[in-house]
Amino acid sequence: MSAVRIFIADDEAPARERLKELLEDIAGELPTEVVGEARHGLEAVERVPASGAQVLLLDIEMPGMGGLEVARHLAALEQPPRVVFVTAHDRHAVEAFELNALDYLLKPVRAQRLAAALRKAAAAAAPGREQLARAAIAAREYLSIVERHRILLVPVRDIVFLRAEQKYVTVRTRSREHLIEEPLVMLEHEFAGQFVRIHRNCLVARAAIRGFERAAEGPPDEPHWLVVLDGIVERLPVSRRQWPVLRELVADKP
Amino acid sequence: MVSIRQTTYPDSLPDFRNLGVIARVLVAVNAVALGGALFAAPDLAQAIDRFAQVAALVEPLLLACLVALFVLSPLLARLPYWTGCAAVMALVLLVTVMLRAGVTAIVAEPPAELGRMLVLAALISAGLLGYLRLRARAYSPALAEARLQALQARIRPHFLFNSLNAVLALIRRDPKRAERSLEDLADLFRTLMSDARQFVRLEDEIALLERYAELEQLRLGERLRLTWELDAAPSDALLPPLVLQPLLENAVYHGVEPGTGAGEVLVRIERRGDRVLARIENPYVEEQQHRAGNRMALENIGERLALFFDAEARIDTRISDGRYRVEIEIPYRVASR
Fold it and tell me: How far are the Cα atoms of A88, B132, B192 from residue B156, in angstroms, in the given order?
């Protein structure tokens, strides 16, 4: 039986040490090999893809990015690792439990629980993105683009607009453009606080709206208003249906 | 004789040196004077006139009484409650007689009939003593105790379990330090579960802060950079228990843990004249929703300071230059022997 490749993500050094000690303790019944460690969420997203880890021991409360969001980004990998959440909080434990296919461990972790969770995880499939999205309590702070052995993170606060085009959604920041494969409706739902729909196929960041200008007259069924956005030259058409909502938004702005 | 833990709390005289008590007396007496003037005069203009006349006599008398009570407060506090009340009444009447005699000697014409003045002074003093007694009961230790205990029980389970986890990690590598950490944890919880009604000495609260900091350091290592400025801290000052520890806990929880790098926390305690100032600073990190709840802890501490010091304590928070600062100011008091 070959060793299970494990990645440990926890912001507290003693907690990582403790997990490694426990893995050694149970090595007799369950051989494991620690292939990487991360001290916070962003580091985990950066290091896990190339580590070849099969199971990720993931602390939920981490700075930079919480464990639940880390798992959501990693789930887009071609071969996502199985995830065992670790937490000192009961509240989060309950939320993690919503990912019913998964196991979670409470700190301080016991060797026997760890062994059982690892065996279960090794046998199960990695958690799906929808499943993780359902368990999330908060909107993500990043969107992710999966490259071969890398995950590129785009901070949601840098995004100016999201536009659906056929299979993909274009993510536009002030300086770049990316393509992601997530339905626009789901994004609209998740980021309702930060983005507003201006057209059937487009969401713009509320904070980026500078104003509106009248479009040069086109055919009668074309939209008549364009939104002017902060930091980009491109003007985006506002659909007639969304116009009343947006006009009020601007009126509310100081 | 077997001592039984008291469950009822004896009445005690108000602290006549407390700003809150002084302010309440001032407001109440003036309200009564104004009410009396309004009642006696046929219209508003005359009532105001009448109030001005009355004030010329009432204000000096009121101030003289308050000064006398302020000076004699420690002596009065030693008397049993009812004897104390009688002493306060006697003092007020004595001051009234003396002041009237003084005024009569200067202007040669008595300001008001002595009997009337004495009865009014006695009625108002009795009314005020009654009001302050009721007020003290409303905030009575029995009620307050329950609240205090509830407030105190709020140490984050997150901290306990993460600390235990960190100690477990130490047991094999550094058993000595593991022992120390468990001792720290025991001390911390002993204080958390102890009687919250007693003042503690500042040096004990500082020792508690250091134990707590030691545990956090174990967990967070390099990420927590603590600076202590305690040289000017008056170790004998009295304060309610667990006022500073939750603030330090907040500083770590909100200012250091959410950051991926190192966070600097400053603890400065000093005495300035008859005031004690404590300031705790941490890096300001914009909060995610689940890190909210800081306000609640601050309100708790504010309430407890008010229970112990009434209007003489203050707690402020400020965010500037990317730092979050909490400042507490309390009167400098020491245990009387």
Answer: 10, 37, 12
Nearest to B252 by CA among B273, B267, B235, B240: B267
Compute the distance between CA of residue A116 and CA of residue A104 in angstroms, rounded to an integer: 10
Give the A:B interface size as CB pairs under 8 Å.
Answer: 64
Nearest to A63 among B161, B170, B259 (CB): B259
Residues of chain B with C-beta less than 8 angstroms from the C-beta of A90: 157
Cβ separation B260–A138 shorter than 8 A: no
Distance CA A47, CA B47 (A): 82
CATH class of A142-252: mainly beta
For A173-208, give the secondary structure using H, E and C.
Answer: ECCCEEEECCCHHHHHHHCCCCEEEEECCEEEEHHH
Asked, for residue B5, whether it belongs to a domain, the answer is no
Cis peptide before B234 (omega within 30 of 0): no
pTM for the predicted model, two decimal places: 0.73
ipTM: 0.79
CATH 3.40.50.2300, chain A: domain bounds: 4-135
pLDDT tens digit string along B102-134?
888 887 777 778 888 889 889 999 999 998 888
Domain that holds residue B321: 156-331
